[in-house]
Specification:
mainly alpha
């Protein structure tokens, strides 16, 4: 239903009903626009969680085995570990799919599943965009006494 037709219905409805109808109309239209997100796009949170659980112990900000942080897309791009839009040219993908156990990451652990590898490949192909920020826990010492 178009907004103009819906406005005609609202003018004829009682105020209480009109408000309810208006809320329903907005909810349906807003949900439809956000639901329009491309379901084929990879979830940045999922990719970050794969990298956190399978790679960050050795290649995270706290680790010193690489010159990048695997949980920071910009860091990986800057270090040329990832080539935006070019998964087959990305060192990250090369080491996680390698058949050679001397090269393949994670070292001395089972390889990533095909599902995990596919998500990382798609993330790189889609531009290797930044991951969402992690929730930062408040400092206990700065907490108000009332809490």
């Amino acid at each position: 239903m178009s907004a103009q037709n819906f406005a005609k219905v609202l003018r004829k409805a009682k105020p209480c009903l009109a408000t309810g109808l208006w809320i329903c109309f907005l909810t349906i239209n807003l949900a439809g626009s956000s639901a329009g997100a491309d379901p084929s796009k990879v979830s940045l949170s999922e990719v970050k969680e794969i990298l956190r659980s399978r790679c960050a112990d050795c290649h995270g900000a706290e680790a010193s085995s690489t010159d990048f942080d695997v949980l920071d897309a910009e860091s990986m791009l800057k270090a040329n570990a990832v080539k935006s839009g070019k998964p087959e040219e990305s060192k990250l993908l090369e080491v996680i799919v390698s058949e050679d156990e001397k090269i393949r990451m994670p070292k001395d652990l089972p390889p990533l599943s095909s599902n995990e590898t596919d998500k990382i490949r798609r993330w790189i192909a889609e531009g290797a965009t930044s991951f969402p920020s992690d929730v930062v826990m408040p400092d206990e010492n700065s907490r108000e006494d009332a809490f």
